[in-house]
Amino acid sequence: MARGLGYYIAVRALMIIPTILVLYTIVFILLRMLPGDPILAVAGTKNIPPEQYEELRRLAGLDKHPVVQYFDYLWGMLHGDFGVTLATPRGTPVSRYIWQRFPATLELTIFSFAISVLLGLATGTVAALRRGGMVDAGMRVYSIVAYTLFIPWFGMILQYIFGLQLAWLPTSGRLDPGLTVDRVTGLYVLDSLITRNWDVLKSALAHLVLPSITLGIVLSGAYTRLVRNNMVDVLGQDFIRAYQARGVRGWKVAWYALKNAFIPVVTLMGLQFAILLGGAVLTETTFSWPGMGTFIVDRIEYRDYTSIQGAVVFFALFVGLISLIVDIVYALLDPRVKY
Amino acid sequence: MSATQKTLPIIAVLLIIIVGAAAFYVGRSMAPAKVETTTETTTVTTTVTTTVTKTGPAPTETTTTTTTTTTTPAPQFTTEQIVIGVTDKVTDLDPAMAYDFFTWEILNNVMEGLVKYEPGTLNIVPALAKSWEVSEDGTVWTFHLRTDLKFADGTPCTAQDVVRSINRVMQINGDPAWLVTSFVDHVEAPDDYTVVFYLKQPTAFFLALLATPPYFPVHPAYNPTEVDSDQTAGGVGPYKIVSFTRDEEIVLEANPYYYGEMPRTKRIIVKFYRDATSLRIALETGEIDIAWRTLRPTDIEYFKGKAGFNVIEVPGTFIRYICFNTAMDPVSNKLVRQALAAAINRQEIIDVVLLGAGEPLYSMVPKGLWSHIDAFKDKYGDANLDLARQLLQQAGYSETNKLQITLWYTPTHYGDTEADIAQLLKEQWEATGMIEVTIQSAEWSTYVAQLREGQYMVYLLGWYPDYLDPDDYLTPFLHSEANSWSGTNYANPQVDQLLTQAQSITDQAQRAQIYEQVQQILAEDVPYIPIFQGKLYIVARSDVAGIVPSPTMLFFYSTLYKTG
To answer: Exposed, middle or buried, B17 (CB in 10 Å: 0-12/13-18/19+)?
Structure first.
């Protein structure tokens, strides 16, 4: 408690900067190491005259020395400028794409996150309460299977069952063809609620079910293990025995135990959030979800350096902020944490 | 571990229950948005009327009001809406920059040039121009425009718009600009309805060039000096763009001011999918009415046998071929290249890998285009192992001293059948007993960059035409001043001279003669081996009618409608 919460937050926030710098540098170098460039990737086998090719490279700033490119872009980012796209459509501000694509990823992330936490808590608690039995073993298997599931494969199975065979749910995109909603936040569920557009709300929720369940289940595995182990620990502690001795029984005990087992789970949430965004890349690709993940994948194909750099840095910034918030929440939850 | 086996079914059931429950709450009510459509219709008609009243005051537009009110009433359309799914992308809506086949298709539906291809044929017919003349020497082309041309918002389109748009393409100098700048010196509009092109040299295939998007007049709303990638104002075409959400969908609606026949379907939505699997599922679930480019050969087979779907074949001008870096040993030896050309079995590739979705090709000029000859078939036959062995022996190879080559392919750009094509080619070549093939692959951006630099020995590529003329299948490949992109290092002064000569001759029979000669030299020199001509398929739900497959491989949406 020596320096107070404000100082703690400031230090944690400052630590985001080197993280992002390192990440930007790695991405920058990796991209330049790949053969090919954005102009050729678009031209493909088409016959672009050499003079025009040079001109296009010059316009894209690719004729400059990589070191100059590195610092130019860094300087731009410091001013909140993520540059313009280098491949088709050329010259569009990258920030416009982030603005358009990020809410899609955020929406998917929020739903998957909620599903993974709820599933993890439920399965972990049940396993801890039935420790050593069949259910416990089952949940342990669930956690391993869920954790190792390959998203595209699992997603496709769900698409096949619920999209094709039962025809209950749509399998790709965010809305039915032709539906639109006025943008307020870019999160379709929220926007449709705000504008009271119930058709869009229904369609948006329906489109969210399969992708967020796919990602949610895959991420819930880690929670199952953690919650179970913590619960087992907590259930063995004296204060639980004291409850039981006073006649408190069953789910009530579980509830008290869960509250205490929850703290390490919060830490995991911060970490999982980063993984969640990574998983979003695979989930988005499987479900044609027009988010940041698919954007980055497309842009890598085009060698669109600035778009990838911009998107990755923005991603990192966002994850950094989330983990900062989680740490603060953690500090507030657990009085033993020293700032 | 026995617990594992017992619990797996439990988990499976659990998963299904969870997803099922969620689906039950939200999914059930997921009926296709029919109600939505009808409400939309009324709003759209009102917007049209408002535009008419807005433009009302000017005397010229008063006539517009009467014509549009006769064309706008909804009952005219046979069908309200058709949804088409594709795995392609719209890259850039600006014809000054767009340079990929699918974006050109969208542009062809929302814009037109002075001339166009008649849907279903390779015939060039009048479009915005009703007639034209060519000067004696073939360098001055004069076009007479229709007088009733209007953009999708009612703004008249005149000769000045044509000139402005073409100058804009030349000034922006984007990817496809060479289609204009290599041929056109300048363009003028002596009056509102006359456009005169002054060409750099006589160009026999100028009409085919004119039918490409860089020559399409665009609405004045396009940024005059810069690329306008998301501009939806369009040009003079049967459809207009209502909305474009990148990588999600593009919504088109009949252009009420279109001079020609009204489209039969009022609204066309094109949805973009990431892969063939999601496209196939979308068609099966009824999310889309038509699956267009590109399903897998196995999916096509599946839909052919399924009730409720029609599979329509689109004959292709798309060609696939093998390239040789003629400067790299051992394929720098012509005998080696000839031997490889003799050994391949085209029909087997088509039957085994493509499940019939192609036609054997024996020249770079595709079948169906004038001047095509089966040059390779006449010279080498098909799967001619004896000839191949004989040629290899001449080149100094034998069963003990095998020819070593490396074959490159790119795994996704031409669909996921590519690895199988490479594998089959390897088997066919190795069947001679005198060749050993190593297969390698590289992802598209790497592939293009490295092959241009001449790093590959033998490699697979494909070609979609820019304009439909034999010139576009020969000059970019064989003319030493135009084929630097190909990494083949092929140069033959005689071919250069013939190709340049053919460009400026206006008599088609005379040109055909030259192109036949060039194709024979191609079969002799073998810098490329043509393999097959691609076919595409449109798979539609059985209530969709009016699909006109075009040999241009462009899909025109205006004839589509639904039955019942």
So the answer is: exposed
Q: How many CB pairs under 8 A join A and B?
A: 223
CB contacts of A206 in chain B (<8 Å) are: 26-27, 29-30
Among B6, B281, B413, whose Cβ lies nearest the Cβ of A164? B281
Would you give the DSSP letter of residue A93?
B
Position B425 pLDDT exceeds 80: yes
CB contact under 8 A, B272 and A156: no
Task: Kindly determine whether residue A288 and residue B274, on different chains, have CB atoms separated by under 8 Å.
Answer: yes
ipTM, two decimals, is: 0.81
Q: Which residue of A has its CA nearest to B270?
A: A177
- Which residue in A35, A172, A202 is closest to B30 by CB distance? A202
Average pLDDT of chain A is 85
pLDDT score of B207:
94
Residue B285, pLDDT above cutoff 60: yes
Structure confidence at residue B68 (pLDDT): 37
Counting every residue written for chain A, the total comes to 339
Range of weakest confidence among A235-239, B232-236, B556-560: A235-239
Tens digits of residue pLDDT in A288-333: 899 998 898 888 888 899 999 999 899 888 888 888 887 787 777 7
User: What pLDDT does residue B50 have?
Assistant: 32
Task: Name the minimum distance, in Å, from the CA of A61 to any CA of chain B.
Answer: 16
| In chain B, % of residues over pLDDT 90 | 66
Structure tokens at A181: 């909603």
Contact between residue B204 and residue B502 where contact means Cβ atoms under 8 Å apart: yes
Q: Answer whether residue B107 shows pLDDT above 60.
A: yes
Instruction: Give the rounded distance of the alpha carbon of B450 from its chain centre.
Output: 24
Q: Which of A141, A167, A295 sits opposite B4 (nearest CB)?
A: A141
**Hey, are the CB atoms on B178 and A52 less than 8 Å from each other?**
yes
List CB contacts of B393: < 8 A, sequence separation 6 or more: B434
Which token pair is A44?
């493909």
B19, B83, B482 ranked by CB distance to A47: nearest: B482
Q: What is the C-alpha separation between B239 and B227, in angstroms, rounded?
A: 22
Residues 6+ apart with CB under 8 A from B439: B406, B407, B408, B409, B422, B423, B426
Q: Cα distance from A9 to chain B (closest Cα, Å)?
A: 39
A 229-288 residues with CB < 8 A to B: 285-288
Mean pLDDT of A158-174: 88
Task: Please count the CA atoms within 13 angstroms of the CA of B109 that sit on its side-chain side.
Answer: 29
Residue ranges per domain, chain A? 101-177+208-301
Is the Cβ of B440 closer than 8 Å to some Cβ of chain A? no
DSSP output for B127-165? SSEEEEEE-TTS-EEEEEE-S--B-TTS-B--HHHHHHH
| Chain A interface mutation, best of B2, B6, B19, highest count of A Cβ atoms under 10 Å | B19
Q: Which fold has domain A101-177+208-301?
A: MetI-like fold (1.10.3720)
Q: If you average pLDDT over residues B325-346, what whole number do you get? A: 95
Please tell me the distance from the alpha carbon of residue B218 to that of residue B165, in angstroms, as a whole number: 6
pLDDT of A277 > 70? The answer is no
- Which tens digits make up the pLDDT trace of A261-275? 777 787 777 777 767
